[in-house]
Design a protein that fits this description.
There is one protein chain. This protein has a three-stranded antiparallel sheet. The chain has one domain: Winged helix-like DNA-binding domain superfamily/Winged helix DNA-binding domain (Arc Repressor Mutant, subunit A). A hairpin with a 2-residue loop joins strand 2 and strand 3. Helix 4 packs across helix 5. By secondary structure, the chain is of the alpha+beta class. The chain is built from six helices and three strands, in the order αααβααββα.
């Protein structure tokens, strides 16, 4: 059984922790965002209109989903004239781990 000091130490460590993984997994728990993430795993430089067409959603809805992934630093945005395209940030260790996890569970 843990001592009171051990419990307090663990509580402090957990409260100091800035772990973003629960937030990221929560965002990818949304089926639309997860499917977009998988699409970006297979195809690079996907534009917002392409995402909208692939999933039969509005450009606005696709843009909102991609914006969430961008805020979590899972994707990066590239402007190509008037088009806005996205790709996974494969230099991000979290993205690499997520890719491995998704591939293992396909």
């Amino acid at each position: 059984m843990l001592t009171k000091e051990q419990v307090n130490k663990i509580k402090k460590e957990l409260s100091d922790e800035k772990d973003r993984m629960p937030i990221i997994l929560g965002a990818l728990g949304d089926p639309s965002r997860f499917r977009i993430f998988k699409l970006l795993m297979e195809h690079h430089d996907i534009c917002v209109t392409d995402v909208a067409n692939v999933f039969d959603i509005t450009v606005s809805a696709a843009s909102q989903q991609l914006r969430v992934l961008e805020m979590l630093e899972l994707v990066e945005k590239m402007r190509m004239g008037q088009m806005v395209c996205y790709e996974l940030k494969k230099d991000n260790p979290t993205v690499r781990q997520l890719i491995q996890f998704v591939k293992l569970n396909e």
